[in-house]
């Protein structure tokens, strides 16, 4: 950028990324789907098309970081709703930390989060022992691979993590995706 004061030109070098996308900040209300297929019962907030475009010029899901009130979030996916708007699901643990539910007001501060997600190393070691499961895993979109990994890493105990890895490897060996695996094992503890 070249700035001229009087007759003396001054060169100012600023990182280009600084101007790419700005943080969005706004107040909204937590909503809840009544009947919406697989999203029935979800709590969420809406990110309008205009606000989502300020974050990233995408029409597909992308990840954000920032704050919901004082709760810091990172690598949370915004999900497109087909009309240009996006939603940010607010799961049970998030609602509990916020102390909020559907109908409550929320201050939202978001930035794009382009940092790559690291897949669970324990999960990947186990997948390498089952070539069929690994082959199917590699056919899945990166976002679906991340569902498995985040679910496994969110386990609070080593026993739960082990059960989840086992369940995932068996499901992938049967060419199931994440959603199919969860539905097939609905009655079993995770």
Query: What portion of the residues fall into strands of 2 or more residues?
Result: 25-35%
Which geometry do the CA atoms define?
Answer: globular
| Series of H and E elements | EEEEEHEEEHEHHHHH
Spatial separation of the terminal alpha carbons: 55 Å
Spatial order of strands in the largest sheet: 3-9-6-7-8-5-4
Based on CA atoms alone, the radius of gyration comes out at 21 Å
What is the number of strand segments? Answer: 9
Helix amount: 25-40%
Largest sheet: 7 strands, antiparallel
Low-confidence sequence ranges: 1-19
What does the model show?
The chain has 2 domains: 22-112, AF2212/PG0164-like (Elongation Factor Tu (Ef-tu), domain 3, Beta Barrel), CATH 2.40.30; 121-184, no CATH class. The termini are far apart. The chain is an alpha+beta fold and 190 residues long. α4 packs across α6 (158-173) and α5 packs antiparallel against α6. The protein has helices at 49-55, 92-98, 121-128, 131-139, 142-153, 158-173, 178-184, and strands at 2-5, 8-11, 24-29, 31-32, 43-47, 62-68, 71-80, 86-89, 105-112. The strands form 2 sheets. A 7-stranded antiparallel sheet has the order 3-9-6-7-8-5-4. A two-stranded antiparallel ribbon has the order 1-2. Helices cover 35% and strands 26% of the residues. It has 7 helices and 9 strands, in the order βββββαβββαβααααα.
């Amino acid at each position: 950028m070249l700035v001229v004061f009087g007759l003396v030109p001054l060169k100012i070098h600023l990182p280009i990324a600084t101007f790419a996308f700005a943080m969005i900040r706004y107040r909204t209300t937590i909503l809840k789907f009544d009947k919406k297929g697989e999203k029935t019962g979800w709590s969420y907030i809406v990110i309008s098309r205009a606000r989502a475009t300020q974050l990233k010029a995408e029409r597909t899901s992308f990840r954000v970081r920032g704050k919901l009130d004082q709760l810091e979030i990172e690598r949370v996916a915004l999900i497109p709703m087909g009309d240009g708007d996006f939603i940010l699901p607010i799961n049970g643990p998030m609602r509990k930390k916020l102390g909020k539910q559907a109908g409550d007001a929320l201050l939202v501060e978001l930035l794009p989060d382009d940092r790559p997600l690291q897949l669970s190393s324990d999960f990947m070691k186990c997948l390498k022992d089952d070539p069929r499961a690994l082959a199917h895993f590699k056919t899945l979109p990166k976002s679906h691979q991340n569902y498995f990994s985040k679910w496994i890493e969110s386990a609070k105990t080593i026993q739960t993590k082990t059960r989840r890895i086992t369940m995932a490897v068996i499901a992938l060996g049967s060419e199931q995706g994440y959603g199919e695996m969860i539905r097939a094992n609905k009655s079993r503890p995770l």
